[in-house]
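During the practical work, I selected for study one protein's amino acid sequence and its backbone structure tokens, as given directly below:
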Amino acid sequence: MTQILNEIVNYEEDTQQDKFLTFTLENEVYGLEIKYVKEIIGIQPITEVPDVSKYVKGIINLRGKIIPVIDVRVKFGKEQIEYNDRTCIIVIDIEDISIGLIVDGVAEVVNIAEENIVPPPDYKVGFQNNYIKGIGKVGNSVKLLLECSKLISEE
């Protein structure tokens, strides 16, 4: 995890294009644009907040800053599991909002050139997912690239 965070910190703003932090949920690999990733932290005590959506796990105090935390697994309609030593929180900053994303594990930072990113299948063929911005082709595998702004919406 420290090595991945160091990679993120070492990137200059202009070299962040085409770079994605990948993480896992069950057997799927997702990617977030690196420009939104502030840091990666281990799971820590979360203060529950009453009367919020099921996927909002609560808030954390990160060096004096209160950050809401969502379980991406629950947001995507997957079964909630016990957190373990691979579970981590990806802190993203988007639209002047910091939010923590609980994921099963962080994988790596990958380069995916724009020409290797295709739009998701059309909803007319039964594919409807508001969170997927595109599908990145990396070798023989695919990474589901997420639209960060839609992750923080109530949809």
